[in-house]
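Hi Y.,

Following your request, here is the sequence exactly as I used it, all 420 residues.
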Amino acid sequence: MADYKSSELLRFTTAGSVDDGKSTLIGRLLYDSKSIYQDQYDQIKKTSERMGEAEINLALLTDGLKSEREQGITIDVAYRYFSTPKRKFIIADTPGHTQYTRNMVTGASTANVALILIDARQGVVEQTKRHAIIASLLQIPHLVCCINKMDLVDFSQEQYNKIQEEFEAFAAKLDVKDVHFIPISALLGDNVVNRSKNTPWYEGPTLIYYLENVHIASDHNFIDVRFPVQYVVRPYSDEFHDYRGYAGRVAGGVLKKGDKVMLLPSGFTTTISQIDGADGEQEEAFPPQSVTLQLAEDFDLSRGDMIVRENNKPEVTQDIDLMICWFSSDHQLNENSKYTIMHTSQEARCVVKKIRYRLDINSLHRDEENIKVGMNDIARIQIRTTKPLFADPYRTNRITGSVILIDEGTNNTVAAGMII
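Below is the corresponding structure, written out as C-alpha cells. Let me know if you'd prefer a different format.
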C-alpha cells in the first residue's frame, strides 16, 4: 500500500507589510539553495546595476511584472518552484500592500506554511496582524515569523525577544497551533539557508532546514471521504462504449477499489469498481490526487454532486455561516444582496441573510454595531443558497469548507469565505 501520508511537496506563502523583504527573502532562498540558473543571476545583476543598487537585488527574481520592478512593489501573486534533495516547494509570493489583501488570501488558501515577515525595526504592525488573522482563518497549519533586517538592528537579541513576545501575545487570541520564530537578514542571507555567525544566541534551525523538515503529512484530511464530481467521462469511441467514469480531485479520505460509497444528493449507495489515475488503474486514491472513479451501477451523477461514505456525510444545507474576507472596492457588502456562490465543483445562487459582526483587526473585537463591510474587511455572515451544498466546517476540510462569492453583474470575485 502506498504511504499516502508522506508528502514531499510543501506549499508556503509569504506575508507581511510593505517593504518587509518578502521578495528578497524568496530570491535569497532560490539563490542560496542553488535553484536559479546563471543567466537569471546575470540578468538581475545587470538590472540591479542599472538601477544603481549597491547589492544584487534578489527581489527581482520574483517581481516579474514590469510595473512591480519599476515601483519596487509586489502586486500580483508570483508562484515559484524549487527543490532541494529532501523536498519540492511551491512558493506563493504575495503582496504586502493593504489594497492587495485579496491576492494574499488567494496565495495562502492552499499553503501548509505561512512565512510572516516582520521588520526588526518596526515590530508588529497592523498589516502583520491582518496577515496573521488571515493565516489563522485560512487554517494554515504552521506559521513562521521571520524577523527580518536583523542587520539593521545590529542583530540585537533584545529587539528579537521583544518582537517575539509582542507577536505571541497577539497570536494567543488566534486559532494558531504552531508558531516558530527565526531571526534573519534576507539581504545578507543570515539564517535563511546558511547559519549566521551574527546570532550566536539563536539556537533554532535555519529557514530552509525548518521548511525541509516541518511535519506536513497530517495537513490533509485522510478520514472523511469527500469526492466532488467535476466531470462525467463518456468516451466517444465504440471500443469503450460502456465506460462511464466520474472525474474529480479527492478532497478528503482514502478511496479504495471495492469501497461502499454514497452519492449525494440522491442518497443512493453503490461500490467503487475501478479507480483510474494519470498512470492507469490504481488500487486507492487520496488527497490531493485527481482521479476518475467507476461505480458498480449506473447512476445519474453530474458536476457538483459528491461521493462520500454512508456513515460519514457532510452537512447538506442551504443555510450557511461564513467568515469572509471582502475583496470588492466597488461596493460594500449589504444584507439581502444576492451573489453566485462557488463551492467545490458546485455553483448556486445565494442571498446574504445577516451580517453578524465585523472583526476589528487590531483588537480582534467583534463589532456588531458598525457592520459596514468594505474592502479587506473580515466579517461573519449568514447566507441562504438556492440549492443545498454539501459542506464541512473549514477547520475539518479546507476544500469542502471554502466558498467564493461572485458578483452577478460584473462576474468579479467579491469575497472568499470559510464555512464555520
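Residues 1-7, 65-75 have pLDDT under 50 and may be disordered.

Thanks again,
Q.
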